[in-house]
């Protein structure tokens, strides 16, 4: 068996833990992999934990007992979160985003892997201490956010479709009223994509009245799923909100098409008293 130097062992252990967040890895797995005693592994884990926590990247959680082990819990500090939110708000305020009809162009933000990865880590931090079986979003723009969040939570993604597809097999479909346009919209979810009774986190890119999120909540009720929370990247003012409890990162307060200005502020993330360290 190859004998690992401690420096190499530390790097490899860190890689394995970060690669599969929230997965419990027995200490014996590391001891066998590196051909060293569990006591040495425990010392290595203390070092990794100290560095990760100091950098605001997360922490290692140790579970004692025969079935125990260690797992990496990704987190983001308040200072890091504020930095991401400032960047997001600054980019949202660019007047070149204004489209005809007062809409905003967001595809470049949703196509930025670095930004989406950080947003996913923020959402995962909010629910780091909770059991999440799946992250749910609606096609198509919310998909990158859902996968980024699920990656940090170590869970799966279920995608709600606007229409059913033959390749999805048996589906559950409901009709829901859009909050802003009052139109009837169809929401479908494949039965195989989500187990009954799952605890889910809803993620979406943009919310106005909340009709899309409300539709997802109603659809998930057909699966007897428990909605642990709702996270959106951007919200905008609405006369009537169909969803009351949610987290938002940024808020578009006003779009003035004539003067080509966009007023943007932080969302309700910190106002809700979330405990970022």
Automatic annotation (TrEMBL):
Q: Which GO terms describe its molecular function?
A: DNA binding
Has keyword Nuclease?
no
Arranged from A to Z, the UniProt key words for this protein are: DNA-binding, Transcription, Transcription regulation
**Chain ranges of the Phosphoribosyltransferase domain:** 110-248
Signal peptide interval: none
Q: Name one GO biological process term.
A: negative regulation of purine nucleobase metabolic process
Q: Where is the Bacterial purine repressor N-terminal domain?
A: 5-74
Family classification:
Belongs to the purine/pyrimidine phosphoribosyltransferase family. PurR subfamily.
Name of protein? Purine operon repressor, PurR
Organism, by scientific name, is Planifilum fulgidum
